[in-house]
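Q: Hi! First time doing this. I have a protein sequence and I read that you can turn it into a structure. Is that right? Here it is:
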Amino acid sequence: MKTLTETLGFGTDVELLHRRLLRNLGVLALGLVGLVMTAVLYFDEKLVRTLSVNLIEQSAAAVQQELSHFFEPLRRSLRVAVRQIQLEDLESDGVLDSLFLSLSPFVLEYDRVDGLSVANMRGDAYVLFESGERDGELLERFTGTDPKDDGKANWRRWHQDVFVEEWRRATDYRPQERPWFGVAEGAPLDEVRWTEPYAFFTTKE
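A: Yes, that's right. Below is the predicted 3D structure, encoded as structure tokens:
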């Protein structure tokens, strides 16, 4: 028994129309899904960017605080060392002994201090640092500008506060060529300044 649409000859057209509607609905659904996914990705990316910026800012603040805690005790120690040096007569014959007695406690007791350098504008330079060979062993080097020094530096080795040995060695060390000298030159009294990391002249580290 035929239906009315089949009798009138509309059966094929209705089925074709039905398929087209389903296809169009499917295309529309896919379009809507794509639009939704695009919106989600956009807002997710924006959210991720915002969260990343916030996380970076929080991390930077935490690092800044940690650096402050790290450097502030060292800053105070350096100020004390400067005052100790200012009390010394750097023109006296016993200047090396005086400098050692004044500065060695900072190198021995402070884990964050591996060495200290002192220089004047003429280019005379004193350096005290841990040898790295054994605990408590210190090396000091004095480089003068007196022509009698003949381009040689005076070296002394100590273990804790006990003198071990001394010697002289040729050197091309010039404090004026070191990064710390340029930063310190002209600095106000008691002002602590920092340099970018650089290789230590003696150890090349």
